[in-house]
């Protein structure tokens, strides 16, 4: 397998990016990054494309809601954009894969819920082909709460999605869901095309379980890649088709640009990404 491209999920620096898009991207480019993973791009594709071009960066992957009827925002829930609108924006930016970043925990608790998620993703995959795009799914830990006949909800989901659907595995959240992360990478095989490189002290219990307190990302003790509980090196070595190693912090431990640079150096200097 060719080394994956190093990238960073821009949600890690959401505040900085919103305050100064050009300046933030320039700082990432100065670190050595050539790729990012955009978020909240549907309402401003031209602006983001211009900023990326100015900084010499590309966004081959991006996060946008595809599988929910409503999108939660700090200002309240709003209807999700039509898939055509999402894919038009992604194509304008130059993306290759649009990844749904999160489906609410309660929808993963029943077999019908899991089936609905998979059917929506398969339908989105067909629509994306009209725009020359692919779709994917990014996990948290709620996908590993329920089990059906010995399969986690996530494992059941994998049996229902079309092979054209790509998987982006968040290593930290899979471990928080008490999964064998390396074994999961091996199980996913070539369908796994992106990995979220995220590390830290994993919560003792699944924070998305129904009995858990309301989740707040500021409670997470996250660390630089290679400095926490996540078997990042072993997972990357087990992958067979990963194209993107995407750095992400839900709760950056310090200055986010220094934190991103630290994880970038871990990937590049270790020979795990290019």
TrEMBL record:
Signal peptide from the UniProt entry: none
Protein name, UniProt field: Sugar phosphate isomerase/epimerase
PANTHER family named among the record's database cross-references: HYDROXYPYRUVATE ISOMERASE, INOSOSE DEHYDRATASE
Coiled-coil positions: none
Xref: InterPro entries: IolE/XylAMocC-like, Xyl_isomerase-like_sf, Xyl_isomerase-like_TIM-brl
Source organism superkingdom: Bacteria
Domain Xylose isomerase-like TIM barrel: residue ranges: 26-252
Keywords, alphabetical: Carbohydrate metabolism, Isomerase
């Amino acid at each position: 397998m060719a080394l994956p491209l190093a990238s960073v999920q821009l949600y890690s620096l959401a505040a900085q990016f919103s305050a100064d898009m050009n300046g933030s991207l320039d700082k990432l480019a100065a670190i050595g990054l050539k790729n990012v993973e955009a978020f909240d791009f549907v309402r401003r594709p031209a602006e983001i494309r211009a900023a990326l071009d100015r900084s010499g960066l590309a966004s081959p992957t991006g996060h946008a809601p595809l599988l929910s009827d409503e999108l939660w925002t700090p200002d309240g829930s709003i209807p999700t954009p039509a898939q055509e609108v999402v894919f038009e924006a992604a194509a304008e930016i130059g993306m290759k894969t649009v990844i749904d970043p999160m489906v609410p925990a309660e929808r993963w608790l029943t077999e019908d819920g899991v089936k609905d998620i998979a059917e929506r993703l398969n339908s989105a995959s067909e629509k994306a082909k009209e725009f020359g795009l692919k779709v994917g799914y990014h996990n948290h830990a709620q996908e590993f709460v329920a089990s059906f006949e010995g399969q986690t909800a996530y494992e059941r989901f994998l049996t229902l999605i079309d092979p054209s659907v790509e998987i982006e595995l968040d290593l930290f959240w899979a471990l928080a869901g008490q999964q064998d992360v390396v074994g999961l990478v091996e199980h996913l095989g070539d369908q796994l095309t992106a990995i979220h490189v995220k590390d830290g002290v994993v919560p003792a219990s699944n924070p998305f379980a129904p009995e858990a307190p309301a989740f707040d990302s500021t409670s997470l003790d996250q660390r630089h890649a290679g400095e926490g509980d996540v078997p990042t090196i072993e997972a990357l070595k087990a992958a067979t088709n990963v194209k993107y190693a995407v750095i992400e912090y839900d709760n950056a431990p310090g200055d986010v640009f220094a934190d991103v640079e630290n994880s970038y150096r871990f990937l590049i200097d270790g020979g795990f990404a290019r």
